[in-house]
């Protein structure tokens, strides 16, 4: 799994460039800053180039990043409905992920360095997760709530629905409107992690949710997202801030 081997929590740095050269530059910068995993937010590129296919860009972005860095890469295509930059239909989402897996195979990308993020709302998430897992990749199944932090029962249900897919890492991101929201998310995360013994990522977006990014690992969240430069989500701390808080 791409999140193992790092001192808890695993530090994931998103890169959001909209050209191949910029993405490679950001990936190198992220590794130098201390990233344990680089997250390629593919939706930023697709948001500005709607007609691209993954087959077109995969080789010119992935190959140089794999060659010029040594840390794992998490491939994330975040849709507009889940707070991302790409407005795409379910059919196109399916096509892009099929192209992604095909391109990774053609590139012979080392499986131990590759992770893919699948949105839980996607009807084909379980099918694609199985294919990616068989190829040896890490699979994250994610759910984002950009309005609120649901009640405790709903938080648990969301986690458990994602965990119905065997072998995946379940990621739940909510919006904290108070510190109590953050405390509830962390409490439920700890309960689910204890009950299921499965890897989880949990975070609360927004200023009120910052504690989840700094202390989530104490409650069973294996990773946190940290910025090197512009943040990709509300409340995302800078690498220097996070390292100071973690005493690194």
Automatic annotation (TrEMBL):
Active site: 144 (proton donor/acceptor), 171 (schiff-base intermediate with substrate)
Record-linked Gene3D superfamilies: Aldolase class I
SUPFAM superfamilies referenced in this protein's UniProt entry, alphabetically: Aldolase
Protein name: 3-dehydroquinate dehydratase
Entry's family note: Belongs to the type-I 3-dehydroquinase family.
Subunit: Homodimer.
Any one Pfam family match given in the protein's UniProt record, by short name: DHquinase_I
Enzyme class: lyase
Top-level lineage group: Bacteria
Entry EC number(s): 4.2.1.10
One GO molecular-function entry: 3-dehydroquinate dehydratase activity
Pathway info: Metabolic intermediate biosynthesis; chorismate biosynthesis; chorismate from D-erythrose 4-phosphate and phosphoenolpyruvate: step 3/7
Function: Involved in the third step of the chorismate pathway, which leads to the biosynthesis of aromatic amino acids. Catalyzes the cis-dehydration of 3-dehydroquinate (DHQ) and introduces the first double bond of the aromatic ring to yield 3-dehydroshikimate.
Keywords: Amino-acid biosynthesis, Aromatic amino acid biosynthesis, Lyase, Schiff base
Sequence positions that bind 3-dehydroquinate: 39-41, 78, 213, 232, 236
Organism of this sequence: Arcanobacterium hippocoleae
Gene behind the chain: aroD
């Amino acid at each position: 799994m791409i999140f193992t081997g790092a001192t808890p929590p695993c530090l994931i740095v998103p890169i959001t460039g909209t050209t191949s050269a910029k993405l490679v530059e950001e990936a190198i910068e992220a590794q130098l800053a201390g990233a344990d995993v680089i997250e390629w937010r593919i939706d930023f590129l697709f948001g500005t180039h709607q007609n691209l296919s993954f087959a077109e860009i995969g080789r010119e972005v992935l190959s140089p990043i794999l060659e010029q860095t040594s840390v794992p890469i998490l491939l994330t295509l975040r849709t507009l409905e889940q707070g991302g930059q790409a407005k795409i239909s379910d059919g196109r989402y399916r096509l892009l992920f099929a192209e992604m897996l095909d391109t990774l195979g053609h590139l012979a990308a080392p499986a131990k360095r590759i992770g893919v993020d699948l949105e839980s709302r996607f009807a084909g998430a379980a099918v694609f997760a199985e294919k990616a897992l068989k190829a040896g990749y890490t699979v994250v199944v994610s759910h984002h709530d950009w309005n609120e932090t649901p009640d405790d029962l709903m938080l648990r249900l969301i986690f458990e629905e994602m965990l119905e897919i065997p072998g995946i890492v379940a990621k739940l991101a909510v919006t904290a409107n108070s510190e109590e929201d953050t405390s509830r998310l962390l409490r439920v995360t700890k309960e689910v992690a204890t009950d299921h013994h499965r890897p989880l990522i949990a975070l609360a977006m927004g200023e009120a949710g910052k504690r989840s990014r700094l202390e989530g690992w104490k409650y069973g969240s294996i990773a946190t997202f940290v910025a090197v430069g512009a943040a990709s989500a509300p409340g995302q701390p800078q690498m220097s801030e996070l390292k100071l808080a973690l005493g690194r």
